[in-house]
Amino acid sequence: MTSAANTVMTLYNWNILILPSGEEIFVGLRQRPETVPPFKPADEEDELLPFTLRNSSPIREFNQAQGVGYTDSGKRYVVLGQASDPTGMIRLSVDQMMPAEQIKWKFPFND
Predict the structure, then answer these.
(1) 52 and 36 Cβ atoms separated by less than 8 Å
(2) DSSP strand pairing (51-55 vs 24-31)
(3) Centroid of chain to Cα 7
(4) Which one-letter DSSP state was computed for residue 89?
(5) Which ranges constitute the DSSP H helices of 4-106?
(6) What are the CA-CA distances from residue 82 to residues 12, 47, 66, 75 (Å)?
(7) How many Cβ atoms from other residues are within 10 Å of residue 28's Cβ?
(8) Among 103, 58, 56, which residue's Cα sits nearest to residue 79?
(9) Tens-digit pLDDT profile for residues 64-77
(10) pLDDT tens digits for 87-104?
């Protein structure tokens, strides 16, 4: 069994959402594992997207130059490149969860 401290989440499209409380969380797309659910190979009838959407717990520390951050849950997040959302999935998901006036992104999206 792995502990949260050993868990790494790599996001290839991402941004940091500033919550109304002032806390910040990672929101982004993560490459979908080759088997979903675990141990069951995907078959031709499965309609799977090549990614999953990931929201983190509050960020404890983030080094923007290195693209590495740590959350309150102990997970390490690695973000690739600049903040981006070319599929629109990140913004669509957050738009459905929060009123527009409460949505505040830390970085401009680089699409």
Answers:
(1) no
(2) antiparallel
(3) 14
(4) H
(5) 89-97
(6) 9, 29, 11, 20
(7) 27
(8) 56
(9) 999 999 999 999 99
(10) 899 999 999 999 999 999
